[in-house]
Design a protein that fits this description.
Elements (H helix, E strand, L loop, with lengths): L7 E4 L1 H10 L11 E4 L3 E7 L6 H7 L4 H14 L10 E7 L4 E7 L4 E7 L7 E7 L3 E10 L7 H7 L4 H10 L15 E10 L6 E12 L2 E8 L7 E3 L21 E3 L18 E5 L5 E3 L4 E9 L3 E7 L4 E8 L1 E2 L8 E2 L4 E4 L10 E8 L2 E3 L1 H6 L12 H18 L14
Antiparallel strand pairs: 1-2, 3-4, 4-5, 5-6, 6-7, 8-9, 9-10, 10-11, 11-12, 13-14, 14-22, 15-21, 16-17, 16-20, 17-18, 18-22, 19-21, 22-23
Helix pairs in contact: 2-3, 4-5
Bound molecules: zinc ion.
Zinc ion binds next to strand 14.
Length: 420
């Protein structure tokens, strides 16, 4: 947002008079009605600090208490000030004497709060929530996994796009591809996506509209489509859903499995082998842990063995367990509803854990089952309904054209011909 419009048109015979006193020059020509006023304004741009209020922010910058009260009164008519969030940008302009000229607070990616005096020198304020000017663009990117870009992150980086797009792409194919162990040199991808461009800040990604991934000779396509009366989902060429009842794993970017599920019982004498009722994923502290399916929080607890643990109940007799978390996501408490893919906590090493990892357990009708095998066998979501196939094909064909345009017309694996 911030288009920095400092120079404000003000009615200022007064200020011109001051300038004339300061310099010993002949009196200026009679002032025009409006002149630009520049040097008497100070401007502060920053990020909202944690646990603060608008009241405290304005006072900290020397805005007079009665003015703060008037500003808050005006602002709270259009915006719930309890929604002020840390780390959001703000802009504050003041006259040299401390009078508030202009205040902006970025509410979210779509809008900001603006407070200004109703007229120059007035001590009444007008507050508005203003849409942030931005343009929707359709972007495409295509890349290849090879020796110089051996991971999807690096391959995406080489296209000039950012890691958020990599995560979103991995999410689209999360039911089909294990991006940790299955990606290999020669794999290729193309992705078509929305991007919101702003003059003053980095652009932000919208949804992925279509994507293609060639993995070990197998090509998977994903086309975003909203069946009539349904929710948007990703479908393959033939209209089969790519969404699964369970995600492939509870981590956004599937990490290494460090210990598998095992039913071996402890040897009664040697006491060496023991059952491992879930799967361990190696992941750094703080990595987001997500709900593998829609469900309800059964508990979010701490104990010395499991550390911070979230337990979820899902349809069809399933329960999932997420152990050793460093933190719970906000709102994760008993009875809360969670959506598939929603962040429920962060990887940690609380409880009996030798290092940061996620122990993930899955119960079916009350008994532990092997999560890796069970997830692989989960049924896919509903296909495009027959009545919507014609509409789907139109969306698909347009999307595939975009992807084809993004990819090199020559297979990238072909020998490179020197051009000079
Ligand atoms: Zn474990």
């Amino acid at each position: 947002m911030w288009r920095l419009r400092i120079p404000r048109l003000l009615l200022v015979s007064l200020v011109v008079g001051v300038a004339a006193c300061a310099t010993n020059e002949p009196p200026p020509p009679p002032p025009a009605q409006d002149v630009f006023l520049e040097p008497d304004t100070t401007r502060v741009q920053g990020l909202v600090e944690p646990r603060t209020t608008l009241d405290a922010m304005l006072r900290a910058h020397g805005v007079a208490a009665d003015v703060v009260g008037t500003v808050i009164e005006a602002a709270s008519v259009v915006f719930d000030l309890r929604r002020l969030r840390a780390a959001q940008p703000f802009l504050l302009e003041q006259a040299l004497g401390g009078d508030l000229r202009h205040f902006e607070y970025e509410i979210d990616a779509d809008s900001y709060l603006r407070v200004m005096p109703i007229a120059a020198e007035a001590d009444e304020f007008r507050a508005e929530v203003v849409p942030i000017p931005k343009t929707l663009e359709h972007g495409v990117a295509a890349g290849r996994i090879d020796a110089s870009t051996p991971s999807l992150f690096q391959a995406m980086d080489a296209t000039g796009e950012r890691a958020e797009l990599t995560l979103a792409l991995a999410q689209v194919f999360s039911g089909e591809i294990d991006f940790n162990s299955e990606v290999q040199p020669g794999d290729r991808f193309a992705v078509a996506f929305e991007r919101f461009v702003r003059d003053d800040r980095p652009s932000i990604y919208g949804v992925i509209t279509a994507a293609e991934f060639e993995n070990d000779g197998r090509r998977i396509r994903a086309v975003r489509f909203t069946p009539p009366g349904g929710e948007a989902d990703y479908f393959d060429d033939e209209g089969h859903s790519l969404q699964r009842f369970f995600l492939r794993s509870p981590l956004k970017f599937e990490p290494r499995v460090t210990s598998r599920y095992s039913t071996r019982r402890m040897h009664p004498i040697l006491r060496t082998a023991r059952a491992h009722t879930g799967v361990d994923y190696g992941a750094p502290t703080g990595a987001a842990v997500v709900a593998v399916s829609n469900g309800t929080v059964v508990s979010a607890t701490f104990d010395n063995a499991n550390g911070r643990m979230v337990r979820l109940r899902h349809a069809s007799g399933y329960e999932t367990y997420y152990l050793h978390l460093s933190a719970f996501a906000s709102g994760i408490r008993r009875g809360a509803r969670v959506a598939q893919g929603q962040t429920i906590g962060a990887v940690g090493s609380t409880g009996l854990a030798t290092g940061p990892h996620l122990h993930y357990g899955l119960k079916k009708n009350g008994a532990w089952v092997d999560p890796l095998r069970e997830h692989r066998n989960m049924p896919p979501g509903d296909p495009v309904p027959p009545g919507a196939m014609e509409a789907f094909r139109a969306v698909r064909d347009a999307a595939l054209e975009q992807l084809a345009a993004a990819s090199s017309p020559e297979p990238l694996a072909a020998p490179i011909v020197a051009t000079r």
